[in-house]
UniProtKB/TrEMBL annotation, chain A:
Source lineage: Eukaryota, Metazoa, Chordata, Craniata, Vertebrata
Gene3D superfamilies: Translation initiation factor eif-2b, domain 2
Coiled coil: none
Single annotated GO MF: guanyl-nucleotide exchange factor activity
Location of this chain's protein in the cell: Cytoplasm, Cytosol
Function: Acts as a component of the translation initiation factor 2B (eIF2B) complex, which catalyzes the exchange of GDP for GTP on eukaryotic initiation factor 2 (eIF2) gamma subunit. Its guanine nucleotide exchange factor activity is repressed when bound to eIF2 complex phosphorylated on the alpha subunit, thereby limiting the amount of methionyl-initiator methionine tRNA available to the ribosome and consequently global translation is repressed.
Source organism, top-level taxon: Eukaryota
Family membership: Belongs to the eIF-2B alpha/beta/delta subunits family.
GO CC list: cytosol; eukaryotic translation initiation factor 2B complex
PANTHER family, alphabetized: TRANSLATION INITIATION FACTOR EIF-2B SUBUNIT BETA
Official protein name in the record: Translation initiation factor eIF2B subunit beta
Subunit structure: Component of the translation initiation factor 2B (eIF2B) complex which is a heterodecamer of two sets of five different subunits: alpha, beta, gamma, delta and epsilon. Subunits alpha, beta and delta comprise a regulatory subcomplex and subunits epsilon and gamma comprise a catalytic subcomplex. Within the complex, the hexameric regulatory complex resides at the center, with the two heterodimeric catalytic subcomplexes bound on opposite sides.
Keywords, sorted A to Z: Cytoplasm, Initiation factor, Protein biosynthesis
InterPro entries: eIF2B_beta_subunit, IF-2B-related, IF_2B-like_C, NagB/RpiA_transferase-like
Gene name linked to the record: EIF2B2
Organism per entry: Oncorhynchus kisutch (Coho salmon)
UniProtKB/TrEMBL annotation, chain B:
A GO cellular component annotation in the UniProt record: eukaryotic translation initiation factor 2B complex
Biased composition (Low complexity): 89-102
Job description of the protein: Acts as a component of the translation initiation factor 2B (eIF2B) complex, which catalyzes the exchange of GDP for GTP on eukaryotic initiation factor 2 (eIF2) gamma subunit. Its guanine nucleotide exchange factor activity is repressed when bound to eIF2 complex phosphorylated on the alpha subunit, thereby limiting the amount of methionyl-initiator methionine tRNA available to the ribosome and consequently global translation is repressed.
Source organism, top-level taxon: Eukaryota
Name of the protein: Translation initiation factor eIF2B subunit delta
Family from the record: Belongs to the eIF-2B alpha/beta/delta subunits family.
Organism this protein belongs to: Oncorhynchus kisutch
Location in the cell: Cytoplasm, Cytosol
Any Gene Ontology biological process: animal organ development
Principal subcellular localization: cytoplasm
Amino acid sequence: MPGADKETDLTERIEAFLADLKRGGSGTGPLRGSGEMARETTYLLRRITAQARWSSAGDLMEIIRNEGRRMTAAQPSETTVGNMVRRVLKIIREEYARSRGSSEETEQQESLHKLLTAGELSEETFREHFVHLKANVIEAINELLTELDGTTDNIAMQALEHIHSNEVIMTVGRSRTVEAFLKDAARKRKFHVIVAECAPFCQGHEMATGLSKVGIETTVIADAAIFAVMSRVNKVIIGTQTVLANGGLRAVNGTHSVALAARHHSTPLIICAPMFKLSPQVFTTCSLSLNDVNSCFPVLKILSKVNVHCPVFDYVPPELITLFISNIGGNAPSYIYRLMSELYHPEDHKL
Amino acid sequence: MYHRYVVVALSRRKPNEGKELTKEEKQRLRKQKKHQKKQKERKNEKGPSETEKDKTPVSLLPPPQPVATQKAPSALPAPASAPIPVPASAPFHSSPAPSPADKPAKSKAELKAERRARQETDRAAKQPGSSSSGIKTKVPLSELNPVVKRLPEHVQVDDPAVVKRLAKKLERQQIPLRSDYGYKVSLFSHLHQYSRKAPLTQLLSIPSTVIHPSIVRLGLQYSQGIVAGSNARSVALLHAFKQVIRDYTTPPNEELSRDLVNKLKPYISFLNQCRPLSASMGNAIKYIKKEISNIPSQCKEEEAKTKLLTCIDRYIEEKIVLAAKAISKYAIEKISDGDVILVYGYSSLVNNILCEAFEKSRKFRVIVVDSRPRLEGREALRRLVQRGISCTYVLISALSYILPEVSKVFLGAHALLANGYVMSRVGTSQIALVARTYNVPVLVCCETYKFCERVQTDSFVSNELDDPDDLMVTRKGKTQLENWQDVSSLGLLNLVYDVTPPDFVDLVITDLGMIPCTSVPVVLRVKNLDQ
């Protein structure tokens, strides 16, 4: 009976989470920031590990994979959910390998040497039962959670290395990571921030009020003025929704224009993104739902005769990006694929 | 012997042609001082008497000069001062006589060159409203008239001396001074920033005695944004001036050509205060002033007025209406069936082109790109949809999303600068940049009357700052930036124009034909020679 209660409790929580995801939508921006989303997902996965019925690592992975598929189907634009699922899968594999006694390194890496010497690829079935696997996995997930908690602070700590005094920094829309980054630098340095408002939702306004409250000289400009103002900007620091495997970005609408303008003026483009945003997915665009469009453009009575496009995300190719600042330090876009291979197992790329 | 006669004959014909360099230099300096004093006095509007004195050396030059005929009635006071320079030079005429044979030949050529130079500079000085006269017309000898090009006052707001001077000038003209509003971003502290809620007309008395009512109405329409777009503004300005001319009567003892120009000056200052003049308006005003001062003085008032009215009508017809037709003709050649054309904001010329192309049954569809805070694209969208053209509407942030579908970009311009840069609504340079990245051709359509001699390389040094409150937006009942004035470190920047470098623009379509961006100074030169 207690088992059944736990299970119903678990399924209830999962359903609640899925409903939340569906409701969140990418119209006005997610209801919660992606950091919170990642944390919620990880809590839920920990709960599944603790409460669901499984006997071997393979079972657990199957359960988590199924749940992960449902979660990503509920809200495809929210990639952090899928990323956390993949991280947890990788954790399970690692713990399983450690329990089995084999060293992690040789199992994980696919090198040419291994391909030559191993001959037939051994099929890992994860069927062995280990007593302490559950505890180990839960402990590893807790470590992941502490890492998630500290991402924003880790990024913000690097701020002083990248911002000098009397700089003019441009940013686009609203990113909690960038806000924390700039606020941290503002404690010691004086600089000027130009915020592009990012129509139609104008998240940039919130960012500007937040920054100016701490005493940073902020200016709000319209999206159209980005190129006009770019010649006086020293650095462009932006956040992103997702970092793709090739080092490119899936960022808020308008970021590609900013990146092109920065390249034209040879201004460095710096992305502040924590590691949980790294995703092995392919770029897919998505558009606003119809009611959001109607709320953006209320006055267009001729709307029925006109096609209105309102894309939410932009693809920025890696050639336009100078630097990624993440919780593990600064990286060039060409190194992202390597970081990704450390975070996720290649078989988990497709859930 | 022979050369002595030659020298004397020359001296009789042109008495104030100094033969020796030192005397020449002295005269030149004297002339420069008089010229500068004349410019100052013209600003002070003290009346024509002093300027007459300056014209006297000119009136003694050979009669074919058109200037002399204008000055005939006022020639009476002239001879009184004329003899002064003449006797000064007369005693020195005999000195070069004993010089060797080749010297008179050289001095004759030298004389001719100097005479021509002086005629040119005087002609240039006579052109009305030409504070930058030294730059506009050719000054072949650079030592003559080192005229400093005066920077317009509306880009020197951070200089307190200039602001004080402007305030004094406006006080004299009885025009209220408009005060700046809101916190100005430090990069733009040299420009004005006004609020739309405080129009200049609130400070005027009703009825205004100094300013014609149609000008007051026009100023209000400008400052509230009711009349916007460079063609619309120029046409409205010219119509208002027509009304002014119709209602004008020459006061006694005044000349129409002189007095009307002086009457127009406070109107222009007023309009400038309401909203900084556009390049097209500047060119139109220059044209009007030239036409007015070219009115011969024996012309009767009614005749002069009808002449001016027809001139203005012809200007509008030629430079705006017919030019639009010519540009449409060229542009339609560039539109082919199946095209997807991107336009930005509302340009009357581009709209005209698209409507005409649609009437000539070209099959294309249009993507209208719009931007906050003006949202002018909606007007363009409305007009195009009314004609039945299939349209798509996006905001400028969706540009990278929509550009892969586009085959051509048509842009309008506010002005074309002499170094090939295109000054247009803010956001145009962004569109040109992204279009260039996707290898989409960018065509700019602009009439030649908008070509301007200024040069500019960035959007900071000369721009217009619109009301910063326009950037505020209320979503779901909440206005984020409501109290932006209270936060000292927060500034809102609402730019109106930006400049697009010529390497982003593939073609400029003008009424003279299709030219590359870099040919703008050639067109300007041709226009100047025509005038």
